[in-house]
Amino acid sequence: MTTNVQSDAVSIPSGGARPPSVGAVHVTTDRLTSSYCNVATVNSTREEVVLSLGINQDWDRASPELQVALLKRIVMSPHGAKRFQQRLAQVLAEYERRHGELQV
């Protein structure tokens, strides 16, 4: 499946404007999969930011050990991670406007 999206739905390089050589953005979802995640770790090097995502499998809070299965790893450039952080902040701000402030 191919979907046409508005430019604000796709992370645009810094400066905010789409380069003149870029036409419409076509997003394919043929290989898209969904995964639930309730654990995330983030690390970085000079060249990349790494998100490791997984599931806390230990529902017994009295257990002395925590069982976490890391299932997905996403590697981004620092610039891509910064754009992701900005977009995530926008989405969470809109969520809180609709549903109330999240307490963490």
Give a verbal description of the structure.
With 104 residues, this protein is an alpha+beta fold. The chain has one domain (2-99). Helix content is 21%, strand content 30%. The chain contains one helix and five strands, in the order E-E-E-E-E-H. The protein has one helix at residues 78-99; strands at residues 2-5, 25-28, 39-44, 49-56, 68-76. The chain is extended. The mean pLDDT is 85.
Order of helices and strands: EEEEEH
Instruction: Determine the number of helices (DSSP H or I, runs of at least 4 residues).
Output: 1
Secondary structure: helix percent: 10-25%
Strand order of the largest sheet: 3-4-5
Radius of gyration in whole Å, from Cα?
A: 18 Å
**Integer average pLDDT:** 85
Question: What is the general shape?
Answer: extended
| Percent range for β-strand residues | 25-35%
Largest sheet properties: 3 strands, antiparallel
Structural class: alpha+beta
Unreliable spans:
none
Record field, number of beta strands:
5
Please tell me the total number of domains: 1
N- and C-termini, Cα separation: 37 Å
